Amino acid sequence: MTSYTVLILLVAAERVAELVVARRNASWSRAHGGVAYGDGHYPAMVALHTGLLVGCLAETHLAPRPFQPLLGWPMLALTLGAQALRWWCISTLGPRWNTRVIVVPGLPLVSAGPYRLLRHPNYLAVVVEGFALPLVHGAWLTATGFTLLNWPLLTVRLRCENKALARSAPPAAPATPPCSTC
Length: 182
Description:
The chain starts with a helix and ends in a 14-residue tail after the last helix. It is built from five helices and two strands; from the N terminus they run H-E-H-H-E-H-H. Helices cover 65% and strands 3% of the residues.
């Protein structure tokens, strides 16, 4: 078993851990009135992300290429950075994080952790991992295919999530009336 195969199996195990956390968090969200959105695109997302891992293994076994250190090591660093960012998002959102779009009405948007810097940092992790993980071992067809297929899917997902968050936002505080003595 090659080191790259071990890496892909570790990422697959990480995905299983994500699903366990997501299932627990979905129960929490539903218990707090959470509403699910965008279930229609979820199967495509699961298939694409599964395809990424399968493609990494298949391409490197069917079209073996030598490990290129000048490409492979930086891509490994990006892959590990994407994983770190993903788990930073998960820990920051706590029980509100999910692989599905489930929003608990009335909760304010999270503005801590990576959400101080980006509105959707988890999707940055997805994009980076989608091209970096395959390129660790030169699987450029998988990197290209995932990136091209992920782009429209991510567009749908972002629209769905933004609409869900906007619908579920807490009511705005009443505006302060203008000062009558000023």
